[in-house]
Amino acid sequence: MMRRPVAPMFRGQAPRTLDRAARAARLPPVRVTRKGQGLQDVIVGICRFSFLGRCDWAGTAGQGAGAPELLAQRGALLYSPERLERRFAAFETLCLPSVKAQTDGDFRFWLLTSPEMPRPWLERLRDLCAGVPQIRLIVSDKRETVNALREPLREAAEAAGRPVIQFRVDDDDAFSRHHVARIRRHARRFADLPAFAISYPQGLVMGSYQGEPISYWRAHQPFLGAGAAVRMRGPGRCIYAYNHFQLPKHFPAFTDVGGLGYVQTRWDEGDSVATIVARFPKWFQQLDPAEFQRELAEDFPFLQGIDLGFVERKGAA
Q1: Which residues contact 258 (CB under 8 A, 6 or more apart)?
Q2: Could you give the C-alpha distances from 298 to 176, 202, 289, in angstroms and in order?
Q3: How many CB atoms lie within 10 A of CB 281?
Q4: What is the DSSP letter of 225?
Q5: Where does the source fall among the domains of life (predicted)?
Q6: Which DSSP string corresponds to 259-297?
Q7: Beta strands in 35-149, from DSSP E residues, in sequence order
């Protein structure tokens, strides 16, 4: 009885089934490194933009994500025109330029929102995303971030041949132009680990509450959400399954103190539990505006000289 020859899994090209999955997920097919040491890592940034569901906001802590009263209350807050205008200003000034400025452009950036976002604003968001090849806008009616992203993550993992490396960022924060390149460099070092977490704790903070003048700070915050990265053990498991500060309890963890990882915004439009407890913690080092501009030079040159006045709520003082 003749046996049909079995094609080797990897010999300079990806399996056909993974190619099909890659096309379905709008990702390039898997690639084998020239040295034969395994697959090229796929890196996916994830940002929630006015997502209507449970998150780390103080108003939703410990509550069911689908409670009608909570959804109605949250929807009215999230989609008020004044708030959306300020969130778009932050996204267009900080987060979006970070995506465009990456020195390693081989990554994906998923923007997660909900269909309840008023149509004019949703179309504005689509238009902003359309011109950036790395961005995929995901509009999901699910009320848990982990559920909304489970299938996209599985598809991406199947296309890559292993769980992807995820990093998270908020729409009102910026991440270093070297962020993707740094993650990829460390991922090569941790290639033998099935899962790991990475933090870039050195960063800059700017903020204003209740119309106060904008203040500027340098901070050291290990496993802050802005830029925290992880490879999960399961292909459909999402970085938001864990509180970002708890990642070192669940994964081999590494902090990179070289360079600055983030510019974080602390203002009236953000009410995470951590921000409410300590708006500008005592360990922050305050900077004058000129010092802040100089600190931006290497990791955030695209923010130098930019008007950041949207952070201050006019007429609130």
Answers
A1: none
A2: 9, 13, 16
A3: 12
A4: S
A5: Bacteria
A6: S--EEEEEETT--BHHHHH-SS-TT-EEE-HHHHHHHTT
A7: 43-48, 108-113, 135-139
Strands 196-199, 229-231: pairing is antiparallel
Tokens found for residue 215: 């203040």
- Joined together, the tokens standing for residue 168 give 């998270």
Please write the tens of the pLDDT for every residue from 230-246.
999 999 999 999 999 99
pLDDT tens digits for range 22-79: 333 344 333 433 333 456 799 999 999 999 987 655 555 555 556 778 788 889 989 9
Angle at which helix 119-130 crosses helix 81-90, to 10 degrees, equals 10
pLDDT digits (tens, 9 = 90+) for 142-190: 999 999 999 999 999 999 999 999 999 999 999 999 999 999 999 999 9
Give residue-wise pLDDT tens across range 88-126.
999 999 999 999 999 999 999 999 999 999 999 999 999
Tell me, what amino acid is at 161? G
Question: If we measure between CA atoms, which residue out of 37, 42, 43, 45 comes closest to residue 10?
Answer: 37
Supply the pTM of this predicted model: 0.83
Phi-psi region of 304 (alpha: psi -120 to 50; beta: other; left: phi over 0): beta
